[in-house]
Specification:
0% strand; 77% helix; mainly alpha
């Protein structure tokens, strides 16, 4: 019947494990997570089953069944409420973290990339992984592809405006807020012909090269911001939970 020391040791170990989990960060490896979870499990192992034993020893023989069932009921109720509450906390914290960390990146991103930076699409970790493969998505390549698509559409309009004399295409390009200043100046001169088209496409190539480099850099910045957002949100969950463990330790 001398099990109180084991229970106290278990809750202390569990509390230490939760404190260690709050130290996780963006550079933590799978091993860093694993050994911390092992410490938590090492504390839960002797602590939780012995609570059931202590409760059974506290009631008469005829009440053991009802007491055990009652404890299981309230334990399951606590798990359900805890999962719901901490799920809301995680979602709220993650949304705020993403909005904060992605805001400066979105502000400096070109329009073609900015449309791909909706924080809501990154809220689930699954959205940052390829379907079925489980491999992380290269966000830089995704943003580069979006930028290249925009430039392909722009080249089509440039060709129509300068080679074919399409006035509507020229007006569309001049009204575009994303067009390069040098290309806008060339279009404003009402230039046409192969020479003007060659000059315009050269400007497009130079602009696209700079834009793709910027898109790749933005992809790296977004990846870092997402990792930071998830790390801060998850460690905050463990920070809140450790106070519940501390309260349980005091009760024991």
């Amino acid at each position: 019947g001398r099990y109180k020391a084991l229970m106290l040791a278990g809750f202390v170990t569990m509390l230490i494990g939760f404190i260690l989990l709050t130290q996780l960060g963006v550079h933590s490896t799978m091993w860093d997570v694993t050994w911390r979870m092992f410490v938590v499990g090492l504390g839960m192992g002797p602590a939780l089953p012995l609570l059931n034993l202590a409760m059974q020893n506290a009631v008469s023989f005829t009440q053991i069944g009802a007491a055990t069932a009652s404890r299981q009921f309230f334990q399951q109720l606590g798990q359900a409420l805890g999962g719901a509450i901490f799920g809301v906390v995680l979602t709220t914290t993650l949304t705020a973290q993403m909005a904060t960390n992605l805001a400066p990146i979105i502000a400096d991103a070109p329009p073609a990339v900015r449309t791909q930076l909706d924080p809501s699409q990154f809220r689930s970790s699954i959205s940052t992984r390829e379907e079925g493969g489980g491999k992380p998505v290269d966000l830089g390549s995704k943003f580069v592809a979006a930028a290249n698509t925009a430039f392909d559409e722009e080249r089509t309009l440039v060709t129509a405006a300068l080679r074919d004399g399409d006035a509507q295409a020229r007006a569309t390009l001049l009204a575009s807020p994303t067009i390069a200043p040098a290309l806008q100046e060339l279009l404003a001169q009402d230039s046409t012909g192969e020479a003007a088209l060659e000059q315009a496409l050269l400007i497009e190539d130079q602009t696209q090269q700079a834009a793709t480099q910027q898109a790749q850099a933005i992809g790296d910045d977004v990846t870092a911001a997402l990792k930071l957002s998830f790390a801060n949100s998850i460690t905050k969950i463990y920070f809140y939970a450790l106070w519940l463990v501390a309260a349980a330790l005091l009760l024991v």
